[in-house]
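so my prof wants the structure for this chain in the tokens format not the other one, which i didnt know existed until like an hour ago. anyway here's the sequence
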Amino acid sequence: MAKNTNNRIAVKWVRDKAKAAYVKQGSCYICGGTSDLELHHLHSITNLLYAWADSLGYDISTDEGILAVRDEFISEHYAELYELVYTLCNRHHVMLHSIYGKIPSVASVPKQKSWIETQRAKLVGGVVEKPSGFFAKFT
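here's what i got, hopefully its the right format
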């Protein structure tokens, strides 16, 4: 079969299979809004998939190639696909990606999580631990 020229195709095959088990909450983690909800993965599936395939020497450039290893990828990245996620409203999801990019780097995962928690704390009056060990209370 011909090689796929669009890198998104392999990711789409993974998402199509994985999304049946996604658990989207009923409200935005940050603001509590209940409309236009989306699932945000802290780890970019695109980055994970291509790094994983490359490290194992898998050719995922064809439909057959990705379909042959899709279940293995999903199994090995269960936490990143199903646990390290947040339900966000479209507004907050777009804001996050405007800061960290369309496909955030692996190095940005702690920063993304901190940003999400800080935004939530600002809205609900919570306490956020700063990296230096100091605490800031948002009211």
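also thought this was worth mentioning. Strands lie at 37-41, 85-89, 127-129, 135-137.
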